[in-house]
Write a structure and sequence with these properties.
Elements: H1 4-19, E1 25-29, E2 39-47, E3 49-57, H2 73-96, E4 100-108, E5 116-122, E6 125-137, H3 139-143, E7 172-175, H4 183-187, E8 205-209, E9 212-222, E10 225-233, H5 236-241
Antiparallel strand pairs: 1-5, 2-3, 2-4, 3-6, 5-6, 7-8, 8-9, 9-10
């Protein structure tokens, strides 16, 4: 089964070659001690997969303008590695059904142990990257082999013939929040304006079908695309109410 480290490695190889100047390649390498000045970042994961995942980079990467000229390389690496961690969590969900999220992301200078070592190769130059994987499946997730389902629809509880509509495709959308605005303010909107919604960034988002909320959950990245990890679902009857216009 795929692990978080497996997913992180695949995502890192793809994103590093796209985001870094010269399209450097990430390859497996033998672990070796890093010289003074090394820096890194650690992600604390929570959910069905939890633990700490850290990446320590060779000091020379601060001097190499792989993230662009005039850019604070250390800050840029932090942003890139956070993106890799988020994308790896989405990739893990897509491939194993185990959901997790980055609950904390912080800068570190070193890590006590090494799970895997890599070498970032760009032309004639190479830099060492050390990874420590202390992530594991939670006891709750390990004890549950299947995803709990909502209660079945009782015979006769929906309109006859509903089974004929189960293959009908419907448009679903995510709602991050809403706000009422006067028409004048809407007409005055321009590029760069910010519209504040009525929902905190940590609140769940709504999955809407028709005009009904059929589920809520957390936004994740799946293979570079946005996705929804469902945490709440409406009952089957409520979900069918969202397509009552079809009956």
């Amino acid at each position: 089964m795929k692990t978080f480290l497996d997913c992180w490695t695949g995502v890192a190889r793809a994103l590093f070659s796209q985001a870094l100047a010269g399209e450097p390649q990430l390859a497996e390498a033998e672990p070796k001690p890093l010289a003074a000045g090394s820096f890194g970042f650690a992600a604390t994961l929570g959910g069905e997969i939890e633990g700490r995942f850290s990446v320590v980079l060779e000091a020379g990467l601060v001097e190499a303008p792989l993230l662009g000229e005039g850019v604070d390389q250390k800050t840029g690496w932090g942003e890139l590695l956070r993106e890799v961690a988020d994308a790896a969590a989405g990739d893990l969900l897509a491939k194993t059904g185990k959901g997790c999220r980055v609950e904390k992301f912080e800068e570190i200078s070193e890590e006590g142990k090494v799970s895997r070592a890599f070498q970032l190769n760009s032309g004639e130059r190479a830099w060492t990257i050390l990874v420590c994987d202390d992530v594991q499946v939670t006891e709750t997730a390990a004890a549950s082999a299947t995803i709990p389902q909502g209660p079945p629809i009782a015979p006769g509880s929906v309109n006859p013939g509903v089974e004929l509509l189960l293959d009908v495709e419907l448009e679903a959308s995510l709602r991050f929040g809403c706000r009422e605005m006067p028409l004048g303010e809407i007409l005055d909107l321009g590029p760069g304006d910010v519209v504040q919604l009525d929902r905190h960034i940590a609140d769940p988002v709504d999955l809407i079908v028709g005009d009904k909320i059929v589920a809520r959950g957390e936004v994740v990245l799946v293979n570079g695309n946005f996705g929804l990890r469902v945490t709440e679902v409406a009952t089957p009857r409520k979900r069918l109410e969202s397509i009552r216009c079809l009956f």
